[in-house]
Amino acid sequence: MTDLSEIKAAARKAAFLRRAAAHAARPAGEAALLSSVLAGYRGVPLAAYMAIRSEIDPLPVMQEAAAHGPVCVPVIQRLGLPLKFSRWTPGCALREGPFGAMIPAEDDFITPEILIVPLVAFDRQGGRLGYGGGFYDRTLELLRARRATLAIGFAYGAQEDSALPLEPTDQPLDMVVTETEVIEFAART
């Protein structure tokens, strides 16, 4: 395999298998560390995601954060565009969005300053392998051009990969939080 898209596809396939196994064996309280990290950012506009398939679920943290400030979830407008973020509240009416993720029934777009980012795989340098649509890369690039934006990958530890196939357009994470550890990366210039 010499084509980067083929290499990424193979890396995703392996990571999906590791993630599915970790999800099947998930412990109670898997979001406890993420909750403790976010406690220092109460009231800051937060974007998280509605978990699909075997993604680690940030819902308990979203419910907690909503008591202190705005929480939103990503809304895909169409392929090739950055994400928009619609305000979410516990118990709000939802509808199915693209790729099966639930989104608020009523659009109320806000701009987050912290993004809890889903991922397929991560490395210890802040690299992230997503689903391949580039949505978070485009979005983080746009948000970071406007102001400091914290990107926190949320994943099972089993999703770590020491040899991610990355490209220059891939936006780095500032931190990864797993069910067992918080991994912070050096400040980027």
Automatic annotation (TrEMBL):
UniProt superkingdom: Bacteria
Transmembrane segments: none
Entry-linked SUPFAM superfamilies: NagB/RpiA/CoA transferase-like (SSF100950)
Catalytic activity: (6S)-5-formyl-5,6,7,8-tetrahydrofolate + ATP = (6R)-5,10-methenyltetrahydrofolate + ADP + phosphate
EC number assigned by the record: 6.3.3.2
Sorted UniProt keywords: ATP-binding, Ligase, Magnesium, Metal-binding, Nucleotide-binding
Enzyme class, UniProt record, top EC level: ligase
The keyword Nucleotide-binding is annotated on this UniProt entry: yes
GO molecular function annotations of the record: 5-formyltetrahydrofolate cyclo-ligase activity; ATP binding; metal ion binding
Matching Pfam families: 5-FTHF_cyc-lig
Gene3D superfamilies according to UniProt: NagB/RpiA/CoA transferase-like
InterPro entries reported in the protein's UniProt record: FTHF_cligase, FTHF_cligase-like_sf, NagB/RpiA_transferase-like
CC cofactor: Mg(2+)
Protein name (record): 5-formyltetrahydrofolate cyclo-ligase
Family assignment from sequence similarity: Belongs to the 5-formyltetrahydrofolate cyclo-ligase family.
GO biological process, one term: folic acid-containing compound biosynthetic process
